[in-house]
Specification:
The protein has 2 domains: 87 residues, 434 Repressor (Amino-terminal Domain) (Orthogonal Bundle), CATH 1.10.260.40; 169 residues, Beta-Lactamase (2-Layer Sandwich). It contains 13 helices and 6 strands. Strand 4 and strand 5 form a beta hairpin. It is globular, with a radius of gyration of 21 Å. Pfam families: HTH_31, MLTR_LBD.
């Protein structure tokens, strides 16, 4: 076993041991020999097999991909410095300057876990959704079970993908302008990000409307709005949509809220109960 593989395994075990199941929303039953996460729990959170996590910790697997390292860093709630150290131990270069960093800091993960009362999603500067809570998925409906491209807000909008958001003609035009202008600002901020460049090129190829707006050179960022959804269980629901940007990462926390006591707040309460299930009868 190489020293680097041994160090990687030691680091993964230490980070796993320090993280309580409660911190990542894992339910526990009965007595546990250790207070930290089990291998199978880390594997489930990261979308990896238990065997693969075991081989990494035992130094029997080398060269994990950037996707694997990103998933592990997120599941282990590593700081940015720890995330970069994980990359180095795995023989990978940490994300470089000018490239979108979709790393979820521990603080953002705790915020996402605490805001169970409202639908909350986290997007990167290319408007790919990178994390969400259950109520977000219950409201939006297409957060999980699709490819990264299919979950991208810009791609969905300009390719006419089906969704639950309801907007009138004027709001539709304004939304288009905001999305394109926001992507233009991101492209200037992250000139070395191949994924963002490919997304923009593909959008210009498949959507004449996107290409027209792209050539207008308008630059702005999306901040807040009101959005209506046609939900199969609770009907039409209109919510305030606020976008909060995380300092030093440019992640966007998108939160939907309703005025207390309003009909929309009552529908949001109902949505917390029915979740993603349609009401019977």
């Amino acid at each position: 076993m190489s020293p680097r593989r041994s160090e990687l395994g030691d680091a993964l075990r230490n980070w796993r041991d320090r993280l309580s199941p409660e911190a990542v929303g894992v339910s526990t039953y009965g007595q546990r020999r250790a207070t930290g996460l089990r291998r199978e729990e880390l594997a489930s959170l990261s979308g990896l097999s238990v065997d693969y996590v075991t081989r990494l910790e035992q130094g029997r697997s080398s060269n994990p991909s950037a996707q694997v390292l990103t998933a592990l860093a997120r599941s282990l709630q590593l700081s940015r410095d720890e995330r970069d150290h994980l990359y180095v131990l795995a023989g990978q270069a940490p994300p470089r300057s000018g490239v979108i960093d979709a790393h979820l800091t521990p603080g953002v993960q705790r915020l996402l876990a605490r805001l169970e009362e409202f639908p909350v999603g986290v997007h990167d500067p290319a408007w790919n959704i990178v994390a969400w809570n259950p109520l977000w998925e219950a409201l939006v409906g297409e957060a999980a079970g699709a490819t990264v491209r299919d979950r991208n807000i810009a791609w969905r909008h300009f390719t006419g993908a089906a969704g639950r958001v309801v907007v009138d003609a004027d709001a539709w035009i304004a939304m288009e302008g905001t999305i394109v202008a926001d992507l233009r600002a991101s492209r200037a901020q992250y000139p070395n990000d191949d994924g963002l460049a490919t997304l923009i090129a593909d959008l210009r190829s498949v959507s004449a409307r996107f290409d027209e707006l792209w050539q207008s050179n308008e630059v702005s960022t999306h901040v807040a709005a009101r959005k209506s959804f046609d939900h199969p269980s609770v009907g039409r629901i209109t919510l305030d949509c606020d976008v909060l940007t995380v300092h030093d990462s440019d992640l966007r926390i998108v939160a939907y809220t309703a005025e207390p006591g309003s009909a929309d707040a009552q529908k949001l309460d109902l949505l917390r109960v029915v979740g993603t299930q349609r009401l019977s009868g």
